[in-house]
Design goal:
430 residues, alpha+beta, UDP-n-acetylglucosamine1-carboxyvinyl-transferase, Chain, four-stranded mixed sheet, globular, binds ligand EPZ
Amino acid sequence: MTKYIIRGGQPLYGEVEISGAKNAAVAIIPATLLVDGVCRIENVPQISDVTLILTILKDLGAEIRTVNRTTLDIDCSKVRKQHVAYDLARQIRASYYLVGSLLGRFGEAEVPLPGGCDLGTRPIDQHQKGFAAMGADVQVQNGYIMAKAKSGDLKGAHVYFDVVSVGATMNVMLTASLAKGMTVIENAAKEPHIVDLANFLNSMGANIMGAGTDVIKIRGVERLSGGSYSIIPDQIEAGTYMAAVSAAGGEIRVKNIIPKHLDCITAKLEEMGVEIIEDGDSLIVRRFGSLMKANVKTSPYPGFPTDMQPQIAAVLCLAKGTSILTEGVWDNRYRYADEFRRMGANILVDGKLAVIEGVERLTGAPVSACDLRAGAGMIIAGLAADGITEIDQVYHIERGYEEIVSKLIQLGANIHVETMPEDDWHVSAG
Ligand code: EPZ
């Protein structure tokens, strides 16, 4: 059992380098299944979700070579299996990208229903609708998604999504890249990682137009061949450090980012009294005065990202006045509220709304990271709080943040990792 121990109440100063984007990496790595040849992928984040997806790929027969800390060569030419083993794929949401990739490559895929953070219901009906429109028979049986091209080939199709879905947009792009003819996706998601996947596939020979708008057109090609590609910086990791300095105070430089991807977060923090200066591929983020209340509603890109909702909530807990938070994407993304209350936050949740009455200060407490971004929110609250915060279940955080503890130490935070032997944990957990 591993915990993060934070002695809070100290401002942050210094520089932090942002890693490659998790939600781009976990789609681009399965996308290499569609490529005939070696893909060199740079700026790969070292996080446990990436390790899991690489393990699944290796199990399918991919050859993976580490070139350096953040660069991998992946060759899926010898993959012959379309069946993904249950235990690994169940642990991760992004395993659903194996359906789009294997179906595109072999016309057949058998992939366990995905796992991932518990954010309420997480249906995959839009993915299924996209595969079916391209001529696949799609069924869920014994915990597996079974998809198979009905008449040998998959064909381009018109797909109109009922909801804006990141995963369904990416999955249809994957399958359509090698399908016969043109696929048109309407009401497509526009997140930076959608554009990144399209750029990756295009750089390997695909023909995808319009990624980043609501209509994406994919003209299927005969084959994709190897090449090099560098993953974009992680928008949410950058936003998390911006929120951390906003809550704890101080001044930091957030490096290796695309500032445009952060506009939605920058605008909200500025409204709260945080000073943000763009400088090339960095943002300088400063907070010395008091924080002001703000209302935040999450929505698909370019709206305020749901994956920044717990982190901004931690900042709002310390802002003067009453803020209203509206979750516009997931049914249940406030499971962290009870943990924040242990730290003295005044937060009331009703369905998709949270009303936060800012307090003068938070106080350290033992809390549990109930999911990835909730855990990031708890770190931020802990950095700003007086006294000691102990966060357990940090494996959730390590799914998506590369070296978060050392990056925070570099910014002057008083945080360390404590690992308890299993037996001691059982005694104290009792
Ligand atoms: C991706 O999840 C991300 N995960 C999530 O990040 C992120 O919160 C989410 O997009 C929204 O930005 C990965 O990229 C691996 P969706 P995804 O399909 O693709 C409904 C994180 O913290 N929907 O865009 O699963 C769904 O219920 C994680 O990094 C359907 O109704 O999300 C939700 O309300 C957590 N039917 C909305 O659409 C479907 O078939 C958006 O979901 C699919 C989705």
